[in-house]
Amino acid sequence: PCAPGSRHGRDPKLGRRGMSATAIPAPESPTRRAIRRFLRHRLAVFGLVIVLAFILIAILAPVIAPHDPLQTSWSRIRKPPSWDFWMGTDENGRDVLSRVIWGARASMMAGVVSVMGALILGVPLGLLAGLAGGWVDAVISRIADAMLSVPFLILAIALAAFLGPALENAMLAIAITASPVFARLSRGMALDAKATDWIEAARALGNPAWRTAFVHVLPNIIPPLLVQATLAIAEAIIAEAALSFLGLGMQPPNPSCGSMLNSSQRFLTQAPWLSIFPGVTIMVVVLAFNLMGDGLRDVLDPKGAKE
After folding, report:
1. Region of residue 93 (left: phi > 0; alpha: psi -120 to 50; beta: else)
2. Angle at 59 between CA 57 and CA 61, to 5 degrees
3. Residue 225 CB neighbours (<10 A)
4. How far apart are CA 141 and CA 132, in angstroms?
5. For the residues 283-300, what does the mean pLDDT come to?
6. d(CA 188, CA 197)
7. What pLDDT is recorded for position 24?
8. 265 to each of 19, 175, 251, 272, 275, how far by Cα in Å?
9. What angle do CA 176, 182, 183 make, to 5 degrees?
10. 3-state SS assignment for residue 89
11. Region for 79 from its dihedrals, namely left if φ exceeds 0, alpha if ψ lies in -120 to 50, beta otherwise
12. What pTM, to 2 d.p., does this model score?
């Protein structure tokens, strides 16, 4: 017999065609592939960094705020930005930087809590409509269509005015207003999954409807729901600022970017920093969420994702 290393021999580590089995790379997991694609999306990474920075600011607001956001002083009314007060002071002598930090915390909390509430309200109704069909689907779809026919901000203002001026009521109004979008998305994905073989197999095995919805359908629609939730947070932050601007959200003297814009409109020429810094804060955080949502959509969309 030929020696293992000879021309006519065959190395046991080689395959039939002389290729090493270790030369074939292991398949990349979907999670690692999605992370790699996301990291290649520079704008999305930039948005993620800004969002993480705002989340950190919101969590550490009691620590990093240089002054008490509610402390007034008649000796420092409408002072311009300086080394002591980086963003100046407002009409009551309160530090604008501290109020912006706490206002960003309120905006982030309102955006995240409102969207979580919209998910809790909309996703189960959408799954029920898509999987049940018939009159259940017709009723839920018509209610969702009726709510979507009204502009988002107008409906949120109407609900917040009905519930009363408070941040909690504003978050509830935003959650109810945003829920039809998630209901429609969940219904469409459920209808697509309903026609697949694996849903028919799950039903044939005797799985109840709730198990089919939450165990077999819901995990497969998480990527589009995640993208929509990221974009909805930006819209919810704008809605919270608008409601606070109108006096239906965070109530004075508690800081909110929207209420700060409302109180600063009387001093646009004398103290423009009172409106510039809260407005820029809202703009930056909303832009960051939109950039991150666009990146997630490009990464998680199996049809539009590119290597």
Report:
1. left
2. 60
3. 19
4. 12
5. 91
6. 17
7. 60
8. 74, 28, 17, 9, 7
9. 85
10. strand
11. beta
12. 0.84
pLDDT (0 to 100) of residue 306: 45
DSSP count for the chain of H helices, then E strands: 12, 0
CB atoms within 10 A of CB 1: 6
Give the separation between CA 185 and CA 144, rounded to whole angstroms. Answer: 11
Query: Alpha carbon of 244 to those of 157, 172, 197, 261, 304: distances in Å?
Result: 10, 14, 49, 9, 38
**In which band, very low, low, confident or very high, does the pLDDT at 305 lie, cut at 50, 70 and 90?**
very low
Residue with tokens 């960051």: 288
Residue in the structure block whose two tokens are 């109810």:
176
Secondary structure letter of residue 188 according to DSSP: H
pLDDT at 303: 53
Residue 89 backbone dihedrals phi, psi, to 5 degrees? -125, 160
Handedness of CA 7, 10, 12, 18 (dihedral sign): positive
Distance CA 301, CA 224 (A): 8
Residue 148: both structure tokens together:
């979507």
